[in-house]
Structure formats: structure tokens, C-alpha cells
Amino acid sequence: MNIAVVGLQWGDEGKGKIIDILSAGVDVIVRYQGGNNAGHTVVKNGVKYAFHLVPSGILHPGKICVMGNGMVIDPLALLHEIDELRSQGVELSPKNLKIAENAHVIFPYHRKLDGFRERLRSNRIGTTGRGIGPCYMDKYARSGIRVGDLLNPDLFLSKLADSIREKNSIYRQVFGYDGFSEEEIAKEYLSYAQKVAPFVTDTITLLHNLWQEGKSILFEGAQGVMLDVDFGTYPYVTSSNASVGGIFSGTGLPPKALDKVVGVAKAYTTRVGEGPFPTEFRDEMGDKVREWGGEFGTTTGRPRRCGWFDAVLVRYAVRINGVEDLVITKLDVLDKLETIKVCVGYEYNGQELSSYPFDIKVFSSVIPVYKEFKGWMCDTSKIRRFVDLPKEAKEYLGFISEFVGAKISMVSVGSDREDVVLVG
Ligand code: IMP
Q1: Which residues make beta-bridge pairs with 112?
Q2: Total Cβ atoms within 10 A of residue 377
Q3: What is the pLDDT along the chain (424 residues), one digit of tens a residue?
């Protein structure tokens, strides 16, 4: 069975751990979008492993991990991540890590532009500053440089020359920036090319062959539906399709290669970066939940904004992705709360909206309509069976499942692989 794991909120839903658990049962793990803006930590036997680009399935010996063509890859970050994982004893080689030759490459001018554009905007997005948006801009403007190009020095140098000519001219005039040295970037990237080359392949043919052989595939989503460039809180989104649509354009496999979608949502909501967030805590509750949940970004270390579970958004995300199985993470973070709220609708100008409004101005000023639940006020972190969860927690989860229209298959109650409650 081929499954996709997607985030149903603004990223950081704890997908990494779920992907790690589900990876044990598949042969191939493939990432289809984003770059090193993503970040998750997997804790295995008490040891923390940090992932930004490499699929976390690499922790399972014998699996093939693929970085798909829909990704944008910063080779420096990638080589650093490979070195780190290897230094922690992870077996990582061209045998188990495959990089799409047609994935796009992030250059220093992308990172620079990310910063320049943020500074000029009247409403900042709060990007990770990794050059993700500008790299996708070049991809769609047909001036991007792909991983395969790096391995073909003549082609690479001519594309780089075009790119630098264009960037230097624009950056000088618009941002007063001195300009990039073509020679330095060429030298730097040709040295990365040598190190990355053994991992680079035609992942589309590879994936089709593996699929035809009956191997099972896990599609690893980064970020979440509300950061999807089409379906999220535009423009406060990332520049790729984090939801299931991105799988097909980002791997080359067709829709019929996907059997099931697992959606992951936190028992509350978090967001990093700017943008509207109706259920955000406006009081000391934000600090408490941030502390209990360790809500600091894995990539940038920024404190995450925290708020109540927004069932209207998660229902929307479930629909967009056709989620069958819902995984709720970090339930234990709510253990100490007397009362827990869930957003079930929005009020705007005295009228109730029953669905997510695309108009960012409207979404920025809606007032959440809450349903209150009694907290369970006990430690759930050691519980492993759904029947053993406190009655109040079952009620909370049962309501969420019914409202969003997906059955809950797993509840996570801690950061270790073993800290899960399997449902049904
Ligand atoms: P970018 O992807 O760096 O362009 O950032 C755009 C928005 O997406 C910012 O609000 C980031 O904080 C957010 N973002 C990007 N990647 C992640 C992620 O993996 N988790 C959570 N937020 C993210």
C-alpha cells in the first residue's frame, strides 16, 4: 500500500515521528516538495536526529529514500545534513539515498533575494530565509538550475552566467547590492557537484520501476495545507504544494499510485512566521503551551505561535487531501488544562461563516466560535491503548474526528517512537 503523510495545519504537526513509524512498514520513502525550510526531529532510543532535506526513513536500514523532483535543494545544507547523520552512525549512501536530477538547486542569490524581498514588503511573510521562494520563482520563470545541470559543467556554467548576469543587474538597481561573483559561485557549486553526484539519478524511472515491482511507497509531505501556495493562507504560505496535489508533480508518479492519505494535526495549533491565526492565544496560555510543547522551530529556532485547535481549518485540510486516517499529535501537552477549546466556526461582521474564507482580510478579522471541553487533568504520556485514555480525552478526540470527517488512527503522547496510542 502506498501512503502519503501530510500536515493539516501550518506545518510542525509532528509529521516526522509519524513518518518514522510508518516508514518501518514500507520499502521506499519519497519527499515531493519544499527544501530545507522544513525541519523535524526524530527521537530514536533517546537520540535526536535532525532532518531538513533527507527523508527520515533513512533511519530504517534497507529502505530507499528519494528526494523528488518537486524539491528545491541547497547542496551546502544537504552535504551538511548528510555529514551530521553519518557522524551519528546513520548508514547513508548512494544505495539508500537518491536525488532527482530534475530537482532545482538553491543558490546564494536565492537566499539573498529572500531577505531583500522580506525587508521591502509592507507585510512580511516571516520566511525561513533559506531562499525557497526565490528558487521556485526561477523554476517557474524557466531560469532555474537543476541538480542534473551541476553534473554537466559546460551547461551549468552557461546557465549560471545567464542567471548571475540577470541577478546582478536587478539586485544592483533595485537593492543597491554589489553583485555576485560568477567565478566564486561556479567554483563552490562545482565542488558540491562532485560530492552530490553519486546520489543523483532519474528518480522518475526509479520510482516507476519500484512501483511496478510492487514495492510500497510513503510520500513524505513537508509543511502543511495552510502553508500550501494554493490552499493556504496566501500570501503567508510557502512556495510549493504541500498537500497531496504536490505528490504527482513532485515525483512523476500518477494519482493511482496513491492508496491512502494520512493527515497529521496537533491537538492544538501552532504557526511560525507571520499571517493570520484566529485561534492564537493572546494571553499567558501561549507561553505555557509553548513551554509544555517545546514549541520552538527546528529550522530557525523561532518561538512558535500557539493557539486552540481549529477544527474548521483541519476539516478543510482533510477535504483538500482526501484524508482517511487522522493522526493527532501532542495530546499530552494539554494534560494540565482544566478547559480546552475547539474552534467550530468563525464570526465576521456579526455573521457566522461555516468555512474557511480565502479573503485574507476577512480571515484576519474573524472571531472564532468555540466549543468548550472539560480537560482530563492527568498524565496521558504513558497510555498506549485508546480505551485507557481518560473519558474527557476520548470525548475531545471523538468530537474532532466527527467534525473534520476522518477517523483517528493514532494519537501521539510523547516524542519517542514508542509514545503512541493506536486506535482500533
Ligand atoms: P519559506 O518556506 O521559507 O518561504 O517560508 C514561508 C512561510 O512558511 C513562513 O511563515 C515559514 O515560517 C513557514 N514555513 C516554511 N517551512 C515550514 C515548516 O517546515 N514548518 C513550519 N513553518 C514553515
Answers
A1: none
A2: 12
A3: 999 999 999 999 999 989 999 999 999 999 999 999 998 888 888 888 999 999 999 999 999 999 999 999 999 999 999 999 999 999 999 999 999 999 999 999 999 999 999 999 999 999 999 999 999 999 999 999 999 999 999 999 999 999 999 999 999 999 999 999 999 999 999 999 999 999 999 999 999 999 999 999 999 999 999 999 999 999 999 999 999 999 999 999 999 999 999 999 999 999 998 999 999 999 999 999 999 999 998 778 889 999 999 999 999 999 999 999 999 999 999 999 999 999 999 999 999 998 899 999 999 999 999 999 999 999 999 999 999 999 999 999 999 999 999 999 999 999 888 899 988 7
Q: Whose CA is nearest to atom 21 of ligand 1?
A: 11
**What's the predicted TM-score (pTM) here?**
0.96
Domains along the sequence of the chain with CATH: 3-100+200-262 (3.40.440.10), 105-195 (1.10.300.10), 264-422 (3.90.170.10)
Ligand 1 neighbours (beta carbon < 6 A): 10-12, 37-39, 125-128, 130, 132-133, 222-223, 227, 236, 238-239, 272-273
**Contact criterion met (CB below 8 Å) for 324 and 261:** yes
Beta bridge partners of 374: 339
What's CA 151's distance to the chain center, in Å?
28
Of the listed 40, 52, 60, 104, which one is catalytic? 40
What is the distance between the alpha carbons of residues 367 and 413, in angstroms, rounded to a whole number? 30
